[in-house]
Design goal:
Layout: E1 2-6, E2 11-15, H1 28-37, E3 42-47, E4 50-54, E5 59-63, E6 73-76, E7 79-83, E8 87-95, E9 100-121, E10 126-146
Antiparallel strand pairs: 1-2, 2-8, 3-4, 3-7, 5-10, 6-9, 7-8, 9-10
Length: about 150
């Protein structure tokens, strides 16, 4: 495993499966162009306070987002990691949104299964059943766009 720390852009580039690849980038634009040349990409992004590993066309279920409607497009700004099969770029703590763009479309607002919560106090005759359905928002992840002329 080869790692290289870039001081100017504060990004860390890691070549994970570098057995047959001899190229180790020395700059952030070089690393992004190597990832762009790979066929499939993934990102690790924060959505609603949690980190998720996302690829294009994924369907993501997150806790309810109250300020969005069905059909709205959300731009994911907290991207912690960008990668392909051969290369990975990690931000410290995030990759700037000028370098990578990922959008998600709100597909639906839904509820989870019915949860039955039973409360009881011994020897007091107190018994209650509380029924609850957790609300969720489903997002469809769009394409991952790596900006061509990213300034570092």
């Amino acid at each position: 495993m080869t790692s290289l720390t870039l001081s100017a852009a504060t990004l860390r580039v890691v070549a994970t499966r570098g057995l047959h690849t001899q190229t180790v980038p020395t700059t952030t634009p070089g690393a992004l162009s190597l990832i762009r040349s790979q066929p499939s990409h993934y990102v690790v992004a924060s959505v609603a306070g949690r980190k998720y590993l996302l690829t294009p066309r994924d369907l993501l279920t997150v806790p309810r987002l109250k300020d969005v409607k069905v059909g709205d497009v959300i731009k994911l700004s907290d991207i912690h990691e960008l990668g392909s099969r051969e290369y990975t770029v990690r931000g410290s703590p995030t990759i700037p949104p000028e370098q990578v763009r990922v959008e998600a479309t709100v597909v639906e607002h839904t509820k989870g299964k019915m949860e039955h919560i039973f409360k009881k106090k011994r020897r007091k005759g107190y018994e209650r059943t509380v029924d609850h359905k957790q609300t969720y928002t489903r997002l469809r992840i769009g394409p991952i766009d790596i900006v061509e002329n990213a300034s570092s």
